[in-house]
Structure formats: C-alpha cells, structure tokens
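Q: Hi! First time asking for a complex rather than a single chain. Here are the components, and I think there are two in total. Is that enough to go on?
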Amino acid sequence: MEGKLTLFELNQQIKESLSSAIPGTVWVMAEIAEMKENRNGHCYLDLAEKKGTEIIARARATIWSYTYRILKPYFESTTGQLFTQGLKVLLEVSVDYHPLYGLSLNIKDIDPAYTIGDMTLQRRETIDRLQREGVFNMNKELILPLVPQHIAIISSKTAAGYQDFVNQLENNPIGIKFHTHLFEAYMQGGEAAPSIIAALEKIFEYEDFFDAVAIIRGGGATADLSCFDQYQLALVVTQFPLPVITGIGHEKDDTIIDLVAHTRLKTPTAVAEFFIAGAEIFLEKLSRLKEKVVNIARKNLEIQQKLLENYAGALQLDVTHFIHEKNKFLVKKGSILQHEVTNFSYNKRHELSNLKHNLRSSYSHWNNEKKNKLEQQKTFLIKKTEEKIQQNQVLLSRTTLHLKNGLLRFLTKEQERINLNESKVRLLKPENVLKRGYTLTIKDKKIIKSILPLQVHDEIETRFADGKITSRIIKKDEA
Amino acid sequence: MTTKKVTYNEAVAEIEAILEKIENEEPDVDELAEKVKRVSVLLKLCKDKLLKTNEQVEQILKEMEE
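A: Yes, that's all I need. Here is the structure of the assembled complex.
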C-alpha cells in the first residue's frame, strides 16, 4: 500500500507544505463579504475579491477574540466607519490549515489607512458620478418655503436625536406651530440606505403637504456613516422634490448626503434651530413690514392733514383778503356812485331848472307874441269890420235910395201896365169874344181846339154868345 | 394643501407691493385706509398660520399613521 495516504496524512502534508511555503504573515487586500461575531467574541469573516461584479477569490478568515477586542475599536475610531461587511480592508494574515476545518486566514492586524483611502476613492467616484449626471445640485436648487412648517422627519424612533428634535420644535419660545411626521428608517448599517429611500418614497406621496424633509440622527460615539455615502441614496436625495435638510450628527467630513442636501447641518438640534430661526426671521419680517406700513401710513396721514390745514389756512386768508378787497371795492364804488348820483341829480336839477326857465321864458315870450298878434289882429279886424260896415252902410244907403227910386219907377210902370191890361182883359172876356162872332166847339164837355180827335158822325156842341147848338159831323177836311 | 406653501410668499409679496405703493404714490386717505386694512388682514393670516394649530393639518398627519 505504498504511496497511499490517509486523508489526515494528506491534510497534515498540506498543512506542512503551506506553512513552509507561506511562513509567518502576509498583507492581503480583500473585501469583507460576510462577517459575524460569536458569543465568545471571535469574529468569523468571509473574504472575497471581485472583478467587476464577479467573485474571483474567496477565503474564510477569523479574528480571535483577544485580537478582535483591540482591532475593532482601533479600526472604527480611525476610519469613522463601522467594521462591517462590504468594506475593503488590508489585513495581515497567517495562512492556517487545519486537517479538520480546512483553510482559514488568521487575521493578526488591519491597516485602516487602506480602507480610508478606498472609501475616499469611492466617495470621490460617487461625487464625480453625481456631478457627471448633472444631479449633484438639484436639491440645493429647490426653494425652501419662507416658513417650513410641515416637516417630514426621517429618523429612527429610538434614535437619541429624534425625541429631542421634536421637543425642541414643539416647545420653541416664540410659539410657532410646527407640524411634523416621522417616517422611520434605519440610521446605520447595511439596511439604512434602502430604508431611507423607502421613507423618501413614502414622503413623496405627500409631497404637496410637506415643506421640507429632515434626515436626523443623534450622534453616537462611533458611527457607521457609510450608508450616507451610498450612490443610490444620494441620487434619490438630489432628485427629491422637497428640500432635504440633514442633521446626521457627526463631526467628521460631510457624507455625500450632506453634500447633496439642500441644507447641511451637524446635529438634529441645529436642524430644529434652523427651522425655528427661519420662522422667527419671518415673524420679525412681518413685524418690520407692519411697522413700516404703520409708519408710512401715519406719515402719509400727517402730510395730508398738514396739507389740509395749510389749505384751510390759505383758504381763510384768501377769503378774508377777497372779502376785504370786495368790501373796499364796494365802498369805493359806493362813494363813486353817490358822488355820481349827486352830480347827476345836481346836473339834472340844473338842467331841469334851465329847461323850466327856458320854458317859462319861451312861454311868456310866445304868450306875449301871441297876445300882441292877437291884439293886432283884433285891432285890424275891428278896423276892417268898421270899414266894411261903413262901406256897406254907404252901399246900403245908396242901394236903398236906388231901390226906392227903382221901386217907384217900377210901381209907376206897373200902374200904367195894369191900366193897359185892364182894357185888354175886358176885350178878351169869352162873352165879349162870343159877341164878336167867335164860337166855341165842345165835345164831351171839353173844348175842342183841333179836328184831330173828331170823327165823322161824332156829336159836337157849338156855343154862341146867345146860346148853343148840337150838330152831327158830316164831313171832315184837314187844313 | 398646496395653497399653504405659497400663501406666506404671496402675503409678503402683497404687503411689500402695498408698501411700495403707499410709499411712492401717496394715496388718498380712503385708499390708504383700505390698504392698511388689507395689510392687517394679511398679517393676521400669516400669524394665525404660524402660531395656531391647524385642525386640518393635524387630521392629515393622523391619516398618515394609518
């Protein structure tokens, strides 16, 4: 059976070969894929190396409790980072091979500087990426409302800072009412980043209600802040529609969340003070505005009142002046009028008396003239009448005489003619005529002087001085 | 809910506009009184919002718990 080994013998050989091939210790760079502490204080790890996302090497490792007790605080206080899975570490190891348990790396020491360098590098890369993607300043560009009164809080209920923060807001000295709501999330460890993202997603549903988001966490002694450097969380924060204010409670370099947040403050207390101060400033601004408005309004009123008083004063002065002027004018006009009336009436009286005088003198003159003329005419008329009377008396006496003479002559003449006619009338008496042989023809008691009305056989009467006959016409001859 | 955010800004903007108006335009007494009244209303609105509990808001917050 030469050449044949038992498993134990083989493992024993491997162990010897390994310890002669890799004697003492070596420094190894690896990532902590998994780790757990057992109750004895030993730390069991799974180390890995990745190429991209693919694991190309893997090994178990152990930190014995007496080493772990020293290494863990040293690492954490130096890096400001929990000693936990996901970290890239530089470890001093011895390669152990146990026939029963196989290969295992025994961790003797750790170099935090390597992890810090890696973290810095990663951080740098994350920042570069966010900037490259153009989202780095997006949350900063949001406008924080004048008074953020509705605040969504992302924290852990049990976190030391949370309750203080709420108390501080509620009991602020100026009595501003803040309305807060807690959206719970893990604030450290591997679950922190996804749970904060989940909280943000929930807040997003109430985007219209809230004014701002406060991510707060009370400062622990040593804290694992690597979750706040995570790219995915940072990306969500940059693109969140509400301003994010951080108060993560650490004194070291800002995490990436701090860098991309709208406002970065150190502690929850500082965040509460920030909100209270903002409201206070606003209140002060209000009272300043109020004061200003009151002052301007008062000044305005004063100016207007003064203006009014000036107007009233000026008006009174003007009115007085006006009245005075008018009065003076009136008095002047009155005296002028009086003077003119006196003048006028004097003139008129004078004129009137002149006229009266003229009239009287004219009248007496006219009267005299008329009287004289009348007297003359009377004298003349009397003279003329007397003359006429004398003339007519002469004429009358002459005419009387003439008439007497004429009458005498006429009477004598008429006497003579009457005497003559008396003899004529005697001759012309019808009895005397009839006696002289003349007859008178009568028909129907009328004297017929012509033969024209007489017809043959008519009966006619013929008167004679001594009687009458009646005869019938036998023949008629016109002369 | 959205009105909440803008009101402070709007109120301050309106007060400032009124300030500028009464400072530069010298309004008459009636207009001035009206403006001052408006400012006092806006101030009260802001102060009430700042200092008094809003039932509606509390209700919304309560609903978030569920």
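A: The two ends of chain B are 19 Å apart (CA to CA). Let me know if you'd like any chain examined more closely.
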